[in-house]
Every structure is written in structure tokens, then in C-alpha cells.
Specification:
The protein is of the alpha+beta class and about 500 residues long. It has one domain (about 30-480): Cytochrome p450, CATH 1.10.630.10. It is built from 19 helices and eleven strands. The strands form four sheets. The chain has a four-stranded mixed sheet, with helices on both faces. The chain is globular, with a radius of gyration of 24 Å. The protein starts with 5 loop residues before the first helix and ends in an 8-residue tail after the last strand. Its cofactor is heme. It holds the Pfam family p450.
Length: about 500
């Protein structure tokens, strides 16, 4: 048979290979900066993704090639203000999302985060946005819950004075993640939220959500669904799928109840005029819960580590002075605290990864480069916060003072990408900032934090887990020293 003829097979492969090479070298993306190999294959990028190294790999390409870099035959990364504005802000909500976000469907349903087009996202956002507005977050019923949970975190810290405390902790107690878990579930469906800072059973729920080593499994599912279906059982031995039965029980049970507080997201979604069934509500709540635990917990962990370094001790002292001199003042009235948090999120964005979008029909010109339709384009916060040194000079330096300078203020705010940008930016921004600032006030009005002698800079390198980041060593050991001389806030 002709199909089995070796000469025919070889000739066919040669022709197909030649056609593929021609398509690559004639692609409009050939003119973009980037490694030559990325014209022909995405396997280098995939390799780094499977090794939880995508963010640093792309950043290394930006350092070499500049703010625009081709990272795969049909994918381009931008680290410029022009790229951020066009991809995420044009038309109000930017470009549509790629199928990458299918990985974040919950119970087979699309949440606000996993909707792909702008229209579907806008419809869901109209339901949810009210509960994440700053006016709602600052209500006493919401804010008092955050303060109460911060107080519980301080109680646990007090038991570690004189020794070291692991504010990250793997497989035992993740104190910052307990705090973030209790805070977000309070906002989602109080009084049915968690109390993991005091209840070991609730802490098990938190661990199940955050002990996620499913990166490789989910990437196989994304890149080759057929292969994933065929070898899923075998793959799960080496790369576990994400399974959260305890969290499912918590969320689904809460969403079937009535009587949630008026400030909560669940109370809003249960309005019958929105037409959401309890599984729609559960999907949104689980999605928001997972995001709220990892992002806030990780961001606080990296920031407290940075503040504890000897070279940052002057920053910590100045922060303590502002807090102590303004006892009882609202956290949004403390400019240096705001600068410290902004700088922490600049250096260690909770979601440092790329946020992929499709170029719309007809193609677009982005940062001076013509990009064909259906090309995947993205920005990643880690690079956006570092590449343009006219906006962020000495980008590797932890320097909160940069946020207090009037010069360049507008460009800094425009290029700040920790909560993404545009109409599809992080809806939970105000909740995250309230939780972070409340906890930092409570900690640094009472303690000085110092790094444990066993910790190294390598331990705290970012491990890129798809949509969250963790310390590579999965630990963050700090020592807490009580402030002396009656300085402590009561």
C-alpha cells in the first residue's frame, strides 16, 4: 500500500516539515524580538512551565530582548505601559481571554474569572462588583470581621515570641493562609465562614485548597486534552489533579443556607432576580475563596520577609513609627503603610504570571508592532514592575519611598499590575488591601520581625504555581521581638 511505502512517508513528512518551516519564517511575528527557536516551537516555554519557572524565564527574555518579546510561534509577551493599556484596557475590558482559563472552571461552570468574552464577564460582574466595592469593604460589619481575625492571628503569634514562627509553613500550620482563609470566607458567606486560626478542622479545609501540586496535571489537560483523558489515571500518580472535597462541602453547604449577612457576596447572589442556582453560587464562592487564600497569604508572606531583612530595618522602623503615632487611625489614612504595601506587591505580585488574551479579529498594533488576530498576547506583573526603569528605577531595590514621590506618580499607577488592569482587573483588590493593611498594623504595632538564622535568600525565591506564587522552600521562618517601652498599641 502507498501509505506504508517508506519513500512516500518520508516525502510526506519532508513536505509537511517544509510547509511548517515556511509558515514560521514568513509569520508576521518573525520581526519581533525573541530567541530564533521561538519562531518554530513552544516546547522551551512549556518546559519552563512544567518546571514552575515560566515567570522567571519570560522575565529573562525581557531583560535580554526588551519590553516586547516573542515567546512562542503564536505568543508574545509585553512589559510596557503601552502593552498593558492596549491588551487589558482597550474597549474598557481589553481583549478576550484564551482557553487557558478553562482550567479554572468550577463544577463545570464558568465563574466571573473563567468567562472568556467581555459580554459574559460584564453580566456576571454586574452582580458581584457591588460586594467588592470599597464602600462595602469599609462597612463596620465587614471591617470588624477582618480586625477580629487579625487579632486571632496575633494571638497565635504571641505563642512564638522567643522562638521562630513559620508564617508560611508547609503541611503543618500556614498562619497567614489561615488568616486569609478566614477573612475571605467571612466576606463570602458570614456567619457560615471558617475559623481555621482556632479550629483544626477548618484548617484542614484551608490546607486542601492551598497545598496544590497539580500544576503539571493541569498543564497537560490544557495543552493536550485527549492525552490527558487517555493517561489521566497514570498521570495522577506523578502529578495529582486538584481535588478539594472538604472545601466543596463547606462552600456548597453554605450556599444552600439562607441568612447570610447583608454585606456578603452570598447575600447578593441569592437575590432571585439574578437567576443563579446554588451551584452557580458555590462555583463563584469556591473560586473567590481559593484566590483570596493564596494571593493574600503569599503576598503577606513575601512582604513580611522583605521587611524583616537587615537592609530593610529602616523601613520597618518608619512603618512602626507611623502606626504608633497614629493609634486608631483608619489604615487608608496611613501613607507610608500604603507605600510599603504597594512596594511589596510590586516586588512580589501575588499573581506574577502572564494573563493571556487573544488579539481581536483584524489584528492590532501593540507597542509599535503589528500583531495578527488570534495571536496570544499577555503581560506579567513580575516583568511589568521591573523592565521600564524610567518608571521603576533600581527595580530590584525594595524602596517604599518611590510611592511617595510626586514625580512619575501617574506612570507608576498605570504600570502597577499586581491586580491586573482594566475592566477585568482583580475584583477583590479592596478586600485584599484591607486584610493586608489590618494585619500589618496589628503585627508591627506590637513586634519587630527578624529573619530566622536558618533562612536563605534562595529559600524565598518565587516558585511559580500557575496562578499563585510561593517561597521555593515552602517556609518563611521569622522571629518576633515585642516592642519595648510601652510603645505597643492596645
Amino acid at each position: 500500500m502507498l501509505l506504508l511505502n517508506p519513500f512516500f512517508l518520508a516525502s510526506t513528512c519532508l513536505v509537511l516539515g517544509a510547509v511548517y518551516v515556511w509558515q514560521c519564517i514568513s509569520s508576521p511575528l518573525r520581526k519581533l524580538p525573541g530567541p530564533t527557536l521561538t519562531l518554530f516551537t513552544s516546547w522551551v516555554l512549556k518546559y519552563h512551565e512544567f518546571r514552575a519557572n515560566r515567570t522567571r524565564y519570560i522575565h529573562s527574555l525581557h531583560l535580554k530582548y526588551g519590553p516586547v518579546v516573542r515567546i512562542a510561534p503564536n505568543e508574545v509577551s509585553f512589559a510596557s505601559l503601552e502593552g498593558v493599556k492596549e491588551i487589558y484596557g482597550s474597549g474598557g475590558s481589553g481583549y478576550d481571554k484564551t482557553e487557558f482559563y478553562d482550567l479554572f472552571m468550577v463544577y463545570g461552570r464558568r465563574t466571573m474569572f473563567s468567562t472568556l468574552n467581555k459580554e459574559d464577564h460584564a453580566r456576571r460582574k454586574r452582580i458581584l462588583a457591588d460586594r467588592y466595592a470599597n464602600t462595602n469593604i469599609m462597612k463596620s460589619s465587614s471591617l470588624d470581621g477582618i480586625k477580629e481575625r487579625s487579632g486571632r492571628f496575633i494571638e497565635r503569634c504571641s505563642r512564638s515570641v522567643g522562638g521562630s514562627i513559620d508564617v508560611f509553613i508547609c503541611k503543618v500550620k500556614r498562619r497567614l493562609h489561615d488568616y486569609a482563609f478566614d477573612g475571605v470566607t467571612h466576606h463570602l458567606f458570614h456567619p457560615y465562614g471558617s475559623d481555621s486560626l482556632r479550629d483544626p478542622k477548618d484548617e484542614e479545609v484551608m490546607k486542601q485548597v492551598t497545598f496544590d501540586d497539580s500544576l503539571q496535571n493541569r498543564l497537560v489537560e490544557y495543552y493536550n486534552p485527549t492525552l490527558h483523558e487517555l493517561i489521566g489515571n497514570i498521570l495522577s500518580v506523578f502529578a495529582k489533579p486538584r481535588e478539594t472535597p472538604l472545601a466543596d462541602d463547606l462552600v456548597i453547604s453554605a450556599c444552600q443556607k439562607t441568612g447570610s449577612d447583608q454585606f456578603t457576596l452570598l447575600h447578593r447572589m441569592q437575590d432571585k432576580s439574578y437567576g443563579l442556582d446554588h451551584m452557580d453560587m458555590a462555583a463563584e464562592c469556591l473560586d473567590h475563596m481559593a484566590a483570596g487564600i493564596d494571593t493574600t497569604g503569599d503576598a503577606l508572606c513575601f512582604l513580611m520577609w522583605k521587611l524583616s531583612q537587615p537592609r530593610s530595618m529602616s523601613v520597618q522602623r518608619r512603618l512602626q513609627q507611623e502606626i504608633l503615632a497614629n493609634s486608631g487611625m483608619a489604615f487608608d489614612k496611613l501613607p507610608y503603610l500604603d507605600a510599603v504595601v504597594s512596594e511589596g506587591l510590586r516586588c512580589f505580585p501575588a499573581i506574577p504570571m502572564s494573563l493571556p488574551r487573544y488579539v481581536p479579529p483584524g489584528g492590532r498594533t501593540i507597542d509599535g508592532y503589528p500583531i495578527p488576530e488570534k495571536t496570544i498576547v499577555s503581560c506579567q506583573a513580575y516583568s511589568a514592575h521591573r523592565i521600564d526603569q524610567a518608571v521603576f528605577p533600581e527595580p530590584e531595590l525594595f524602596n517604599p519611598d518611590r510611592w511617595l514621590e510626586e514625580k512619575g506618580e501617574l506612570d507608576r499607577k498605570r504600570l502597577f499590575f499586581a491586580f491586573a488592569s482594566g475592566g477585568r482587573g482583580c475584583i477583590g483588590k479592596h478586600l485584599a488591601l484591607a486584610e493586608m493593611k489590618t494585619l500589618l498594623i496589628d503585627v508591627y504595632s506590637r513586634y519587630t520581625t527578624l529573619p530566622d538564622g536558618s533562612m536563605t535568600e534562595e529559600d524565598m525565591e518565587i516558585s511559580d504555581l500557575l496562578i499563585s506564587s510561593q517561597p521555593r522552600a515552602k517556609k518563611c521562618l521569622l522571629r518576633l521581638e515585642p516592642l519595648r517601652g510601652g510603645e505597643m498599641l492596645r
